Amino acid sequence: MEYFTSTSKPSRRAVDCVIIGIYERGKLGVAADDINSASKGEVRRLIKSGDLSSELGQSAVLTKLAGVKAHRIVVVGLGKSSAFGARQFRKAVAAAATVITKTRAKQVLNGLMLETVAKTSRYYLARHTAEAFGEILYRFNKMKSGRQPAASPLKKIGYAIAKQADAADITRGAKHGDAIAAGVSLAKDLGNLPANVCTPSYLARTAKKLATGNAKLTTKVLNEAEMKRLGMRSLLSVSAGTEEAPKLIVMQYKGGGSNKPVVLVGKGVTFDAGGISLKPGPGMDEMKFDMCGAAGVIGVMATVVQLKLPINLVVVVPTVENMPSGTATRPGDIVKSMSGQTIEVLNTDAEGRLILCDALTYSRRFKPAAVVDVATLTGACVIALGAHRSAVMSNDDALRAELVAAGERSEDLAWPMPLGEEYAEQLKSNFADMANIGGRHGGAVTAACFLEKFADGLTWAHMDIAGTAWNSGTKKGATGRPVPLLAEMLLARCRALP
Ligand code: BES
Ligand code: MN
Ligand code: ZN
Fold first, then answer.
1. Domain final residue, candidates 158, 185, 213
2. Which residue from 222, 453, 219 is spatially nearest to 337, judged by alpha carbons?
3. The domain containing residue 67 runs over which residues?
4. 57 burial via Cβ count (<10 Å: 0-12, 13-18, 19+)
């Protein structure tokens, strides 16, 4: 996608399409006011006739308005002007993008950029615009045979600006939004691919591909024998029941000189059947999404590489398939993790923590400034927060706050959840250093407490994305979250650089 800024009045710009917005009670947005005057009151007339809705997310297309140079005007409802914030802006742009990408428009000018949006700078508006178009343009048709529906010919997204001085911030926002959209799309593709295609080896190949021709990024992939040598018996206990080879993917991006890196660890269970603690049948297909943590951190790496950010970032992906078989780990088996701590596997379906703990131990060698693991870890998290917010647990108050704040700014929401000795006690085992489950109560928290035992001395946070990483039902599919949140965290760390 290409991006441009335009200081001319929206009515004077000969583009294929201009987005304008109207608020409730007949209040016109800035661009709508301009189009209304240029067309001698056409917008107001249509509002009066009841043909234009001001309800947030409603839209209508007007073509060939007299006095207006653009071929099409897309009018979107903006809702109450007093409640118009970043979320509403993004929803309105997405609604416009939905109708625009069904037309033959090659360029669009976003007139909503001229609005005043509560607590949101032009930079973020530009970013949200690019991300919203990326969201709407995303298709996953790879696995369908036959003729594909024609793709939208949209090539250029323009930003209406009031003064040239705003151009630099907006151009930067567009560039960042474009890279985040690319990371989100990659994460969605990996998530949506079925488990017979997206295997641990497939994830490894994808990670290697990202590094080809990029001097700053190196990818290495550890195989089963190498992991055995490192003592990753906890991780390998999960892949014991499958024919698919387990992998540990390590991507190192060096853009930040001698600074300590941020390490992102992503759960890459390419299919979670539950193992011997087999999951029930209904909805089991959705366990192909159990690698969305991996997809998210690989997606963030794609964003960082595209932007050439001046930071050091390491992505570690433990990736396995969790299947039942005669060679699978049994409930009651005890395994020794790379850290030396022993684990009684009371439930083979609590496998995410078993691969993450060894990946966390492996991460220590990078002497990280911070380690964040990202995982579709527990059904309990879905019960606690639903599909709206990812959970964040941390042994460091500042890191937890940093992640939650990045979620707010990026509109990729998260919420803090606790850790604590009282929860950790639920993991006691009669036979090993710990059990891998802590009972039904507080399941998302006890899972995080398990991981905390492997993060001693690290500045560490855990994000449970079980509710946010994919949609179920008719909209079934990966969401690409938390790529926007993590990208924002890293961008903010760049802003803070001296
Ligand atoms: N991948 C699942 C978690 C999950 C469940 C994500 C449903 C999204 C929707 C994880 O490996 C798992 O099976 N967790 C168990 C843990 C339990 C056995 C302690 C769970 O949440 O039921
Ligand atoms: Mn499981
Ligand atoms: Zn799982």
1. 158
2. 453
3. 2-158
4. middle
Residues marked as catalytic: 279, 353
Residue 86: inside a domain? yes
The residue contributing the CA closest to ligand 1 atom 6 is 466
Q: Report the nearest atom of ligand 1 relative to the CA of 376.
A: 6
Q: Is the pLDDT of residue 370 over 90?
A: yes
**pLDDT per position as a tens digit, 267-285:** 999 999 999 999 999 999 9
Q: Which CATH number does the domain housing residue 244 bear?
A: 3.40.630.10
Distance 193 CA to ligand 1 centre (A): 20
Tell me how many domains the chain contains.
2
Q: Using CA atoms, how far apart are residues 139 and 304, in angstroms rounded to an integer?
A: 23
Q: Is residue 172 part of a domain?
A: no
Sequence-distant (≥ 6) Cβ neighbours of residue 355 within 8 angstroms: 234, 235, 238, 267, 268, 269, 318, 319, 320
Measured from the Cα of 446, ligand 1's closest atom is 19
Confidence (pTM): 0.98
Decide: 380 in ligand 1 pocket, CB within 6 A: yes
Question: Residue 183 domain-assigned?
Answer: no
Mean pLDDT value across the chain: 98
Are 153 and 281 found together in one domain? no
Using alpha carbons, select from 384, 394, 395 the residue that is nearest to residue 441: 384
DSSP 8-state symbol, 279: P
Q: Same domain, yes or no, for 323 and 462?
A: yes
Asked whether residue 343 falls in the same domain as residue 466, the answer is yes
